[in-house]
Design brief:
Layout lengths: L13 H9 L23 H15 L9
Helix pairs in contact: 1-2
């Protein structure tokens, strides 16, 4: 389970979250939101790193972002 105060053990895995965000490329996305990462519950920093990765991926799928293919 992720190290956050409001735990939900049936949530998405990291891979599923990334796949979902990356799958939004090409859509008219107007924003994204990362709800909760709590450093006191994340001594290894893995959840914070995943949160930062998801936010980066959200920025990458915004309209107007150039992609090299």
């Amino acid at each position: 389970m992720p190290p956050v105060p409001a735990r939900w053990k049936w949530g998405l895995t990291s891979s599923q979250g990334l796949e979902l965000v990356r799958g939004a490329a090409g859509l008219n996305i107007v924003g994204g939101d990362l709800v909760e990462v709590s450093p006191p519950y994340d001594p290894s920093g893995n959840t914070a790193l995943m949160g930062a990765t998801l936010l980066y991926e959200m920025l990458c799928v915004l309209p107007g972002v150039k992609h090299s293919e």
